[in-house]
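User: Okay, second chain of the day. Same drill as before: sequence in, structure tokens out.
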Amino acid sequence: GIPTDEKKELQQCSSFFCVCYCMVDILIEVFWFCEVKTEVGTDDVTAMRTALSNGAYVLMQGRMWAQDYESNGYGSTGFNQTNGGFIDGNGNYIWVNPKDPNGGWDSAIRTTGGTIKNLNIMSAWRGIFVTSGENASKVILENVVVNAGDAVNFAISCDQGSGNGLEANNCKFYTFFSYAATIGDVKFTNCEFGANTKYVGNNYCNIYAPTEFVGCEFKQGYTVNAIGTCSFENCTLNGVALTESNIKDLVGDDLTNVTVK
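Assistant: Same drill. Structure tokens below.
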């Protein structure tokens, strides 16, 4: 067997490495929790664009009114989120007036993945435009209001995504939206959907990708075109619980791709 002294040394070494491992694990957790935030001031468009290009955690300290544009690969955009990171609106607003008077592919935020939260998007042809990209990842929206100013045509738009998916939690979308199947799986949780007054008739959405609605509220007159599969769990239409008996009021007569849980 192993001599007693050597056993003690082995036990001490084992304890030492165990403590070191735990300390490293704790330091990693602290690092992620204390992620450095880049604060950007009111209308400091350049600072926000630079921080986003570096994949930073951007914390807005005031409104953001973009009066010039970047390319989003299709048209123009106020801001490109193409390297992951976070946009924390901190309860503030973004205005981006469409460069193209007819709208086209112009957007407020073009994203290939990352987190957008605590933000009100007031004005843009496309509010959140999801595209493919080299550093693509899942798009996460939290506490975002698109069309808070009633001047956004598309709340969410995706023509060619990277298939990483989109999750929206506690968000409000007051206009039309449409996304291709290339966006990946989509899930809306505790979100609200309704119309606006500027773009008459924009009280519907086109679903091409597998989509889950959980705990969502649809306002009176809103409709969902279930071109791709979609499910509804604990949702309401104008305050009335959605069931198999009234789901047609939201999606129409074709229930081929529709499931009510």
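Residues 16-22, 26-34 have pLDDT under 50 and may be disordered.

User: Thanks, on to the next one.
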